[in-house]
């Protein structure tokens, strides 16, 4: 797999917003500049993106979008794993998720727990769904 995950630039906002559908208005150049937003690409094709919001000990995964043509091919799992690894490195006590209703099953399958008011996981104890042979070196910084 040649999936590259890198920090998004404010100039990426228009492309990212096109994936975020109904939430496109929240993916602005200012949002991308203010938050850790990461794109996933294969070659020159945008596969998806995710955005984290630092709230101290608790972080929020506000967006995780996969382009329709890449859905069901494991790219969302890679991006979610990358997001949790990044939050883990920040020593966050919890990662809260704000998914679209149709994405909730994906996150539950990934090991996220349903809690009052949404979904959450403990990054320190989360069991990664990727093979042990996948290391942090597989992800771009």
What does this entry look like structurally?
There is one protein chain. By secondary structure, this protein is an alpha+beta fold. The chain has a single domain, classed as Gcn5-related N-acetyltransferase (GNAT) (Aminopeptidase). It has 4 helices and 7 strands; from the N terminus they run βααβββαβαββ. The chain has helices at residues 13-19, 29-34, 75-89, 104-109; strands at residues 3-7, 37-42, 45-55, 58-66, 94-97, 113-115, 118-121. It has a 7-stranded mixed beta sheet with strand order 1-2-3-4-5-7-6, with helices on both faces. Strand 3 (45-55) and strand 4 (58-66) form a beta hairpin. The longest helix is centred in the middle third of the chain and has 15 residues, at 75-89. The model is unreliable at 132-141 (pLDDT under 50).
Strand elements, count: 7
State the distance separating the first and last CA atoms.
Answer: 17 Å
- Percent of residues in helices comes to 10-25%
CATH superfamily: Gcn5-related N-acetyltransferase (GNAT)
Order of strands across the widest beta sheet? 1-2-3-4-5-7-6
Report the CATH topology name: Aminopeptidase
The low-confidence parts are 132-141
Average predicted local confidence, pLDDT: 86
Largest sheet: 7 strands, mixed
Name of the level-1 CATH class: Alpha Beta
How much beta, percentage-wise? 25-35%
Q: What integer value in Å does the Rg equal?
A: 14 Å
Whole-number tally of structural domains = 1
So what's the overall shape? globular
SSE class:
alpha+beta
At CATH level 2, the architecture is: 3-Layer(aba) Sandwich
Number of helices: 4
Listing every helix as H and every strand as E from the N terminus to the C terminus, the arrangement reads: EHHEEEHEHEE
């Amino acid at each position: 797999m040649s999936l590259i995950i890198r920090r998004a630039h404010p100039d990426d906002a228009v492309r990212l917003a096109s994936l975020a559908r109904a939430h496109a208005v929240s993916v602005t150049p200012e949002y991308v500049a203010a938050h850790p937003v990461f794109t996933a690409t294969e070659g020159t094709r945008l596969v998806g993106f995710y955005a984290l919001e630092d709230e101290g000990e608790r972080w929020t995964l506000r967006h995780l979008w996969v382009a329709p043509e890449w859905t069901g091919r494991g790219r969302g799992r890679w991006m979610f794993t990358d997001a949790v690894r990044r939050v883990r490195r920040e020593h966050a006590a919890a990662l809260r998720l704000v998914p679209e209703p149709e994405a909730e099953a994906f996150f539950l399958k990934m090991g996220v727990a349903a809690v009052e008011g949404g979904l959450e996981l403990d990054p320190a104890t989360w069991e990664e769904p990727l093979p042990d042979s996948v290391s942090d070196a597989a992800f771009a910084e």
